[in-house]
Amino acid sequence: MSSFYRGMICENVTIKGDGGTPITAYTAKPSGGGPFPGVVLVHHLPGWSEFYIETTRRFAHHGYMAICANLYERAGDGNPDDVAAKVRADGGIADSQMVGDTEAAVKWMRAQPGNNGKVGIFGSCSGGRHAFIYACQKKDVDACVELWGGRVVMGKEELNAKTPVAPIDMTKGLSCPLLGLFGNDDRAPSPEQVNQHEAELKKHGKNYEFHATMGPVMASSIGTGHFTGPSSAWMAGARCSRSTASIWRSGVDVRGAFAATALRERQIQSSTSNHNFLVVLRF
What we know:
By secondary structure, the protein is of the alpha/beta class. Helix content is 26%, strand content 22%. The chain is globular and about 45 Å long. The N and C termini lie close together (10 Å).
């Protein structure tokens, strides 16, 4: 597989989400016949934003078929910030609805003739939490990437009809290897919560690898979806990318680098592209 593909095909597709509801998903795939590994992206709290559309294309640039479903479609069209604000005001989306929508994206990916039979799931912020939930409830993904997923650890007072079970209590069902990246100065999740998360993975003998960066990875004002702090997250990711540690078994090899790029999302309006959001998944 080439290290990058300048040519790609990008388009919106309609998939049958939770309960059979049609939702839109953005897809990108490299030019050529493949076969290519697949990545299902679960977008962050700010919604089906430019950042996640661009990240979907970045995966295709590096040789992956990628799909990102609009989990907020039922809240209406419009500016992603406005739609996301409406969703937040309504208490977010139900975990069960997210699982149904994401399952549709996974099925779409596995049905593509250019897919090599391997599909990973990837998410940051609330999408990291959602990716972990999905990998615990379903058995149709080969890899899970959780980037600073908040509210994996939840108190009883935080549970409600939309989030009836804390994700940490789903750990026993985790069906694939997990890679996590977190910031030591973050509060959602805090280092203590990450430690609880890791302890539960160890308790159940799960195949995982966690990396923590110095400094914050994401802003405390999670609704903005912007990262804060210096490029320490990027530097930590770069160091991880040089690691030879592998967490995948059964022929799935992941080395490195979840460069969270503290500057990337914050500077997207100015089209800054010197900082890479790089994930290396070798299937």
